[in-house]
Write a structure and sequence with these properties.
The complex is a heterotrimer of chains A (about 350), B (about 290) and C (about 325). Chain A is globular, with a radius of gyration of 21 Å. Chain A is about 30% helix and about 20% strand. Chain A has helices at about 50-55, 85-90, 110-120, 125-140, 145-150, 160-170, 190-205, 215-220, 240-245, 250-260, and strands at about 5-15, 20-30, 35-40, 65-75, 75, 95, 175-180, 210-215, 225-230, 235-240, 310, 320. By secondary structure, chain A is of the alpha/beta class. In chain A, the strands form 2 sheets. An 8-stranded mixed β-sheet of chain A has the order 6-7-8-3-9-10-12-11, sandwiched between helices. A 4-stranded antiparallel β-sheet of chain A has the order 2-1-4-5. Chain A has a domain at about 95-175. Chain B has about 290 residues and is mainly α. Chain B has one domain (about 15-40, about 65-285): MetI-like fold (Orthogonal Bundle), CATH 1.10.3720. Helices cover about 70% and strands about 0% of the residues of chain B. Chain B has helices at about 5-10, 15-35, 75-110, 115-130, 130-140, 145-175, 175-185, 190-225, 235-240, 250, 255-280. In chain B, helix 3 (about 75-110) packs antiparallel against helix 4 (about 115-130), helix 5 (about 130-140) crosses helix 6 (about 145-175) and helix 7 crosses helix 8. Chain C is an alpha/beta fold. In chain C, about 30% of the residues lie in helices and about 25% in strands. In chain C, strand 1 and strand 2 form a beta hairpin. The longest helix of chain C has 18 residues, at about 190-210. The chains are: A alpha/beta (about 350), B mainly alpha (about 290), C alpha/beta (about 325). Chains in contact: A-B, A-C, B-C. Chains A and C meet through helix 6, helix 7, helix 8 and helix 10 of A and helix 8, helix 9 and helix 11 of C. Chain C: Pfam families: ABC_tran, oligo_HPY. Chain C: One of its GO terms (molecular function) is ATP binding. Chain C: Keywords: ATP-binding, Nucleotide-binding, Transport. Chain C: This is ATP-binding cassette domain-containing protein. Chain C: Belongs to the ABC transporter superfamily.
């Protein structure tokens, strides 16, 4: 295995609140090589967004927040850098795309300026050169008539076009890593597919690594090399995409896959559900966080946190699962997608 | 967990000494003012009974005049407490009246829109266009200066602010789906306004009322100072301060300072608590 | 393609809802109008669920709300259990509304933040002045949506999770014993595992109360799961009406195919995709077939002539010139 571009080790993000400490990210370790795409999947409250922001360095130790562990990006420890140096990473090294393209663009700035400014700040380009690069970037993300679009304001563009602009701005400095936090949740299904295809093709072309954060296993499935499933601030399963869909080993992953309605199923078929509620981040259950909702749970599950162990056969890609009583390797065959 | 949630939670709550002091001051003042007629205080209004009292004596607890007396020998502490009765009663009544009228108009305008909104909008803008003090002076010259008319005049002053606040909040909440849900269940317009919108609009209006009380206490004092409010010798803080006219202030500053400090502390306290209430119950936080 | 017509309307008596030529338009200033729904026909048999499928801007929510008369449609007729709703005035309409209930997308926003669960659920009863057994009926409604009345009765919406809030909304609708439930994207703001719970709950409620449902959503798999028939809308026009059984195989309209190909995990490499990504403006929709600007097979005829719905299989109607 080559030296990973991103190496996260035992990352913990804790928010100190009047209700007590909230362990939003609680001991997450993961690695990502250049050019690869990692899907991070979890429901709301699983800590996936905080994980993305902490990896990026947008969330760091300060009043009310403690970050421990290590985030190493191309050999640099993101959280050991001074704030000014960290800011210098944003753009050329790592960039982020957020969920809502309505609010990630400034409504009073023309579309082109959002990208211009990044180029002139980080790459110290001149006005004309920046303008040319901007138009090129807009064309690259599939915006028709980029010259005209660059002069328009965000409200004149559709949601999908706006998200393309946000992606163009993120790509402006050629980052090594793109963190996309629910990039398509606010978009229509047909547009969602276009945006995900775009990110995949850009990653292929430039060798950029991508972390794709989503609540939708199926949406991530088609584009990621590996999928990491989060629950209650921890990773519960991390495996090559086909393994996650074809042979999930963690009961939570299995239940999540089963609970999504499938096109091939007959109408009015009852969906398997996960009973109960996600854990309260301020007061998580002891041991495995999924144990209270898990039909397989036994006394041992409530003892201590289950370690993330590699269950893959020797020589295969690692298939890590944090479960004391994992599902069988050839358990319920869940079709890819719905 | 959503980001906003964590952000809000990280703001730590520590006991706010200033707010505590403000609250204590207002409670003590209100209790003393309410009980003033029952307390064994020296004479505060009847000149015939203060003939034997020393005039313009300085603050001296030993003399029986805790904060001194005025030019007629009336006790300043007693006058300040009785003044608080009229100042606070007028301000509270005016704000309450303004909140009810302005709040109702605001909800009507915000929910019904169209003609109602236009009419209410024009009326409030006309009121806002007239400088408040000019309006008060104009009203005072027409109306007889007594407590009821001063209250009405001051209430008129708060109506535009209340209308705007209630209208903006109503429009924000009317967009929310629970209003649609109520209508889908067959709720009438009246019910939507009173049961769905009013409870949500009430808190911001009440918080604004707290802030406006302090404004009205000052406005009432200004009117009385100008001789257009409650007439002396009946005390209000405004006409008490007016007694410092001429050389009195230079030689006997306590005559002005005593009502001045009462006025300052009260306005300050209402402002602090009002701001605190407003921050807590602003439109946005009322959302969740 | 996106066309008009009423060939899919069924004859017969037991119809809970029938909608004829529904038009919803909103003025947007400068004399222009958004054509949200243009000439929609639909009918609903007792106990049936009609799924309305489409992307944002297709008019599916406007159609659902126009049926509820919130606001009333620009023109057209809505008949609920034999009563014409359009044009009927305040009180009669308010009475009719108890027979149809609306479940909305954002359960937290659909509950008044200042009221307690018991009062929220009882709202419909209070509005109608039905005082007797109030407590018992509220508790029964809460229990029927899987909530424990003793724990939630005195809570306020912000103390509940999104899924629980949606259960309260469903309880609030069921307490009035409606004939028709209009669900407008009821699960799209919920997590996948919660979504499954709510979908199951709606199915159970439908069976127990003999409800008919109009289920408006953008998610093909979700719509297929709950519906008996599916209607696909595009820019306010009907593209296709078909039974949900076998929908993913039988769907014939190019737009329905595009939606199916966009379902994550269903991507297939040889799908023709679409011509331009931009959704045309609903203020000035394209002539002829409204989908033609995005359709990979569009011909000159599609711009000229508006396709009509016609039957291509049992209960399967398509509005497209090119579908045989």
């Amino acid at each position: 295995m080559s030296e990973p571009l991103l190496d996260v080790e035992d990352l913990r993000t804790t928010f100190h609140t009047p209700r007590g400490d909230v362990h939003a990210v609680d001991g997450v370790s993961l690695r990502l090589e250049a050019g690869r795409t990692l899907g991070v999947v979890g429901e709301s409250g699983s800590g996936k967004s905080v994980l993305g922001r902490t990896v990026m360095g947008l969330v760091s130790s300060g009043p009310g927040v403690t970050v421990s562990g290590r985030v190493s990006l191309a050999g640099q420890d993101v959280h050991a850098l001074a704030p000014a140096e960290r800011r210098r990473l944003w753009g050329p090294r790592v960039a982020m795309v957020f969920q809502d393209p309505m609010t990630s663009l400034n409504p009073v700035k023309r579309v082109g300026r959002h990208i211009d400014e990044v180029l002139r700040l980080h790459l110290r380009l001149g006005r004309r050169e920046a303008r040319e690069r901007t138009v090129g970037l807009l064309r690259q993300v599939g915006i028709p008539e980029p010259e005209r679009r660059a002069g328009q304001y965000p409200h004149e563009l559709s949601g999908g076009m706006r998200q393309r602009v946000v992606i163009a701005a993120a790509l402006a400095c050629g980052p090594d890593l793109l963190i996309a936090d629910e990039p398509t949740t606010a978009l229509d299904v047909t547009v969602q597919r276009q945006i995900l295809d775009l990110v995949a093709s850009l990653s292929r072309r430039s060798g950029m690594a991508v972390v794709l954060i989503s609540h939708d296993l199926a949406a991530v499935g088609g584009r990621a090399d590996r999928v990491a499933v989060m629950y209650g601030g921890r990773l519960v399963e991390s495996a090559p995409t086909s393994r996650v869909f074809g042979a999930p080993r963690h009961p939570y992953t299995g239940a999540l896959l089963a609970s999504a309605p499938r096109l091939s199923a007959a109408p009015h078929s009852r969906l398997p559900t996960i009973e109960g509620r996600p854990p309260d981040p301020a007061d998580p259950p002891p041991g495995c966080r999924f144990a209270p909702r898990c039909p397989r749970a036994e006394a041992v599950c409530r003892g201590g946190a289950p370690p993330l162990l590699d269950l893959a056969p020797v020589g295969g890609h690692p298939h890590e699962v944090a479960c004391r009583l994992p599902l069988e390797a050839e358990s319920t065959e869940v079709g890819h997608g719905r | 967990m959503s980001e906003t949630l964590t952000d809000r939670r990280t703001a730590t709550r520590r006991p706010d000494l200033v707010a505590w002091f403000s609250g204590t001051w207002l409670v003590v003042l209100a209790v003393l003012a309410a009980a003033a007629p029952l307390l064994p205080l020296p004479e505060h209004v009847d000149l015939t009974r203060s003939l034997t009292a020393p005039t313009l004596s300085g603050p001296d607890p030993a003399s029986g005049h805790l904060l001194g007396t005025n030019a007629f020998g009336l006790d300043l502490f007693a006058r300040a407490l009785h003044g608080a009765r009229s100042s606070l009663a007028i301000a509270l009544a005016a704000v309450a009246l303004g909140a009810v009228v302005g709040g109702a108009l605001g909800i009507l305008a915000g929910y019904l829109g169209r003609t109602v909104d236009t009419v209410v909008g024009v009326a409030t803008n006309v009121l806002l266009a007239v400088p408040p003090l000019i309006l008060l002076i104009a009203l005072a010259t027409v109306l007889e200066p007594n407590a009821r008319n001063v209250t009405l005049a001051l209430a008129l002053l708060t109506v535009p602010t209340m209308v705007r606040l209630a209208r903006a909040n109503t429009m924000a909440f009317a967009q929310r789906e629970f209003v649609l849900a109520a209508r889908a269940m067959g709720a009438s317009g009246w019910r939507v306004m009173t049961r769905e919108l009013l409870p949500n609009v009430l808190l911001p209006v009440l918080s604004m009322a707290m802030v406006l009380i302090s404004v009205l206490v000052v406005a009432e004092a200004s009117l009385s100072f100008l001789g257009l409010g409650i007439q002396p010798p009946a005390p209000t803080w405004g006409n008490m301060i007016a007694e410092g006219e001429g050389r009195v202030l230079e030689e006997h500053p306590h005559v002005v300072l005593v009502p001045g400090v009462f006025l300052f502390l009260t306005v300050f306290s209402f402002n602090i608590l009002g701001e605190k209430a407003r921050k807590r119950w602003d439109t946005r936080s009322g959302a969740r | 393609m996106a066309g008009s017509g009423n060939a899919h309307m069924r004859a017969g008596a037991d119809r809970v809802l029938s909608v004829h030529d529904l038009v919803v338009e909103f003025p947007v200033g400068r004399g222009q109008r958004v054509h949200a729904v243009s000439g929609l026909h639909l009918d609903l048999v007792r106990g049936e669920t009609l799924g309305i499928l489409g992307e944002s801007g297709c008019g599916k929510s406007s159609a659902g709300r126009a049926v509820m008369q919130l606001p009333p449609p620009t023109s057209g007729s809505v008949v609920l259990e034999g009563t014409e709703l359009t044009g009927s005035g305040g009180r009669a309409l308010r009475r009719a509304r108890a027979r149809m209930q609306l479940i909305m997308q954002d359960p937290v926003s659909s509950l008044n933040p200042r009221r307690r669960v018991a009062d929220l659920v009882a709202e419909g009863l209070d509005i109608r002045g039905e005082r007797e057994d109030r407590r018992a009926r509220v508790d029964a409604a809460l229990r029927s949506v899987g909530l424990d009345p003793d724990t939630v009765r005195d809570r306020r919406p912000h103390e509940l999770s999104g899924g629980q809030c949606q259960r309260v909304c469903i309880a609030r609708a069921l307490v009035l014993d409606p004939a028709l439930l209009i669900c407008d994207e009821p699960v799209s703001s919920l997590d996948v595992s919660v979504q499954a719970q709510i979908l199951n709950l709606l199915e159970e409620a439908k069976e127990r109360h003999g409800l008919s449902m109009v289920f408006v959503a953008h998610d093909v798999a979700v719509v297929k799961n709950v519906s008996d028939r599916v209607m696909v809308l595009y820019l306010g026009k009907t593209c296709e009406v078909l039974p949900s059984e076998g929908l993913h195989v039988r769907a014939a309209h190019p737009y329905t195919r595009l939606l199916l190909d966009s379902v994550p995990g269903q991507e297939n490499g040889d799908a023709p995709g679409e011509r331009a990504a931009e959704l045309p403006s609903p203020v000035d929709p394209p002539s002829g077939c409204r989908f033609r600007t995005r359709c990979p097979w569009a011909q000159e005829r599609c711009a000229r002539e508006e396709p009509q719905l016609r039957e291509v299989g049992p209960g399967h109607h398509v509005a497209c010139h090119l579908v045989e």
